Amino acid sequence: MRTWLFLAGAILAEVTGTLSMKAALEHPALYVLMALGYACAFVFLSLTLRSGMPLGIAYGIWGAAGVALTAAASAGFFGEPITPVMGIGIVCIMAGVVLVEVGHRGEEKPASARIDLPPRRGEDA
């Protein structure tokens, strides 16, 4: 559950950074929010990976959800259109991520592919 919360944080932070970039064109002070959004996105994405989610799955979901949410939010905040073709494209992206996730389930990575990280300060070994 914690892994998915980290991933959700990464997605929301990335979308916030991207929307702030567009808004900063009119309000330059928002470049600070853009930078914070992107920095937080990468911190949360690294926490997602540290929690055990495979990179291909995490990055795929992060990217696809970011595209879909950014398109929807930019339509709401900036009045940018979402055409039927764009909608179909977003659905195809999301379907592709679902297929990657479903294809990954049940696959156990070999011991040689695992990276055992030392525990963080304050964690039990």
Automatic annotation (TrEMBL):
Signal peptide: none
Keywords: Cell inner membrane, Cell membrane, Membrane, Transmembrane, Transmembrane helix
One Gene Ontology term from the biological process aspect of the record: glycine betaine transport
UniProt-recorded Gene Ontology molecular function terms: amino-acid betaine transmembrane transporter activity; antiporter activity; choline transmembrane transporter activity
Cellular compartments annotated: Cell inner membrane; Cell membrane
Pfam families, A to Z: Multi_Drug_Res
SUPFAM superfamilies: Multidrug resistance efflux transporter EmrE
InterPro entries: EmrE-like (IPR037185), Small_drug/metabolite_transptr (IPR000390), Small_multidrug_res (IPR045324)
Transmembrane segments: 30-49, 56-79, 85-104
A single GO cellular-component term on record: plasma membrane
Membrane topology: Multi-pass membrane protein
Subunit-structure text: Forms a complex with MdtI.
Record family assignment: Belongs to the drug/metabolite transporter (DMT) superfamily. Small multidrug resistance (SMR) (TC 2.A.7.1) family.
Name by which UniProt lists this protein: Spermidine export protein MdtJ
